[in-house]
Amino acid sequence: MLTRAHDAVLALLTPELTWVGERSPELPGTPRRADLVWEVVTAQGNPGLLHIELQTEPDTTMGLRIAEYMIQLYRRDGLPVRSIVVYLRPTERLPDSPFVIRWDGQQCSLSPST
User: For residue range 34-79, what is the model confidence (pLDDT) as tens digits?
Assistant: First the structure.
């Protein structure tokens, strides 16, 4: 029913949007392997994961990759994830993570280190 009445559904839910077409609902399943994943606890005793990614060169897709790692680790283990990218060489521009969750009142996102 929803696919046949897209204009009516949009008018009800989000009138500021205009239907253009339908895309495949299949999501890509990209196998990923993180460099290091450690189970850790905060000073308050709250468990979580520390994901450490090692990079030799800046990567324009790093923020998206880290977000994918964080989501996959969170889905797998159900624990907050703090990701840190360690750049092994100096770089001038560090990417931002598009995926952020909270852990012990702090933001867990890409925390670059050079």
Answer: 999 999 999 899 999 999 999 888 787 888 888 889 889 999 999 9
Contact predicate 71/100, CB 8 Å: no
The domain in which residue 45 lies consists of 32-108
CB 63 within 8 A of CB 88: no
Neighbours of 108 (CB within 10 A): 22
Tell me the residue type at 104: D
The pTM (predicted TM-score) of the whole model is 0.66
SS3 at position 31: coil
Tokens representing 3 are 């696919």
In this prediction, residues 9-15 reach a mean pLDDT of 84
Split into its structural domains, the chain has a count of 1
**Is 56 inside any structural domain?**
yes
Give the three-class secondary structure for 76: helix
Output the domain CATH number for residue 102.
3.30.70
